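PROTEIN DESIGN WORKSHEET
SECTION A - STRUCTURE
LENGTH: 144
TOKENS:
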């Protein structure tokens, strides 16, 4: 995995915990984090290999694994920042890392692993060459 200083394609979004995001105690429900991760991952892909481009090419990135560590709760109306970056490409798999911050403190970290699939066959395919090339070029530049 890359060091903290090298975060290829790092993307940041601002969020606010809405009424429909919370449980009966006013805390952000754990399932909402999955939606926030999806928003972050989609924003990360947009300038490098957009979902529309994927659809046009008959492919799609899909998530095969998600792990989340909740460090501090988010509550109704909290405003927070989510960050995501492409942390690894290995074989057919890619991995993105996430951090969420509220008032300067990390509230959650997450990792997602995925693959690209052919939308006709639903079978795994190699990561698009242009996408992986950008990642490895960034990695080489960051590592000197």
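SECTION B - SEQUENCE
RESIDUE ASSIGNMENT:
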């Amino acid at each position: 995995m890359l060091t903290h200083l090298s975060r290829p394609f790092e993307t940041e979004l601002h969020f606010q915990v809405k009424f429909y995001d919370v449980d009966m105690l006013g805390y952000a429900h754990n399932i909402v984090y999955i939606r926030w991760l999806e928003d972050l991952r989609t924003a990360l892909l947009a300038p490098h290999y957009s979902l529309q481009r994927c659809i046009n090419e008959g492919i799609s990135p899909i998530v095969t694994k998600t792990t989340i560590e909740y460090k501090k709760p988010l509550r109704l109306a909290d405003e927070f920042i989510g960050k995501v970056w492409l942390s690894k490409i290995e074989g057919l798999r890619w991995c993105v890392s996430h951090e969420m911050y509220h008032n300067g403190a990390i509230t959650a970290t997450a990792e997602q692993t995925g693959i690209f699939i052919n939308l006709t066959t639903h079978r795994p395919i190699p990561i698009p060459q242009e996408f992986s090339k950008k990642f490895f070029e960034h990695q080489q530049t960051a590592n000197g």
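SECTION C - NOTES
The chain has three helices and six strands.
The longest helix spans residues 30-49.
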